[in-house]
């Protein structure tokens, strides 16, 4: 491990930067039920003990790879995933499907899709459909707007069509839990649109509205139930519905449900569902509380991240921020940053694993820094958008195979660049947004490895301080007090910002 002894212009640099990660961190409201608001929900619901031999068997793998998908060369698949910034973690994930017809959905579903006039599946659909259709548990890190509703609802329709018909007194086969009434209603509209043609019935169950109509729908028998947790618990306790037939469970916006204090309710509900169900969990962020839910509820799951939407940093990255401020003058600060950068690189290059990407803001700065470093004998190469594709490919290859362990780059390399063994990312200039920051530092710690990100933060970047703090907090990183001071000086209420 690199020692941090000689680095940094702030005395907190080492202490905070290299300190063990704090537990808990940001968020604040996560985890605890809002006592009093819900009383003790589900008090009368007993945890079920399952005898797997007695439960009726059911099918959950309906996936048959389309010949067009089978024929598609691995390189093309890889390029697709990379260009859409999709990352997949977990074993035996099927290939994505890039066209609607490759999903083999029933005709009545395809007819509804055709009417929308969409060009192709969204990335989360492309990778989510084959996964969900194959019966696997999955986590999707995606936000509203990514097409995630259809990513789980269309496989749900296929799942339901393969199950025995509902009988009198049966509860839903597919349960979608959502944090808010608005989201639940939105999901149900989609379920109704696609379910209509397939004669599947759905109901939306949420608090703050009369119970009567919701109960009547449930009692009539529905294949799909979309619910907020509190009202569903009410109905389960009162015996208005049950989850004996539920074999397809969706947790939508899991992070938000936890933020709203629904964890105890969710756990009570999930306890009522047979453990060999298929579970799909969706979240915009991936903090440790959500990871814990996934560990508890999902089995050997595959995780899909759509990078462009991923707003939280990989937790395997140690993030160190050096706040540099040498007087009022910009050029003095710049001088200091270069000085610090070179000292940092000396330390890094003495490490056995030392592959490093340095990000600059502009092409000009990239060229200047590359020239200066090469002149001083550093094994560095530059890459940016003005270089020809051929030159970029060549530079990347040199970097990939370790001939030049230092890559100096603009944001052309911040997304999609997948070099397995990058150990360090240095933000020589701070990027334009915290999303870019997350992508840049995500070039290290690929596939479960660890990595370190160093960031030089100057008064010019002050307006980004609050956002950066939110990212650090979400990842349970120690925070340089100078950064906090900067955020405060700007009047930002940085303490309350959690990344969502
Ligand atoms: P969602 O993320 O599920 O809230 O979906 C966001 C919006 O994207 C909705 O208006 C959908 O109708 C739309 N949508 C879903 N799938 C696609 C697609 N493949 N192409 C274009 N738009 C889509």
Chain-wise SSE layout:
Elements: H1 12-17, H2 67-71, H3 74-83, E1 86-89, H4 107-116, H5 123-133, E2 138-141, H6 148-161, E3 174-177, H7 181-198, E4 202-205, H8 211-220, E5 224-227, H9 229-237, E6 248-251, H10 254-259, H11 263-270, E7 278-283, H12 288-297, E8 302-306, E9 317-323, H13 330-349, E10 356-359, H14 363-375, E11 380-383, H15 389-400, E12 406-409, E13 424-427, H16 434-441, E14 451-457, H17 465-474, H18 481-489
Parallel strand pairs: 2-7, 2-8, 3-5, 3-6, 4-5, 6-7, 9-14, 10-12, 10-13, 11-12, 13-14
Antiparallel strand pairs: 1-8
Helix pairs in contact: 5-6, 6-7, 9-11
This protein binds adenosine monophosphate (AMP).
Adenosine monophosphate binds next to helix 6.
Pfam families: DEAD, Helicase_C
Family: Belongs to the DEAD box helicase family.
Domain Helicase C-terminal: 340-487
Question: What does the model show?
Answer:
Residues 98-126 form the DEAD-box RNA helicase Q domain. The protein is an alpha/beta fold. The chain is built from 18 helices and 14 strands. The protein has an eight-stranded mixed beta sheet, sandwiched between helices. A six-stranded parallel beta sheet has the order 9-14-13-10-12-11, sandwiched between helices. Adenosine monophosphate is lined by residues 118, 121-122, 125, 144-150.
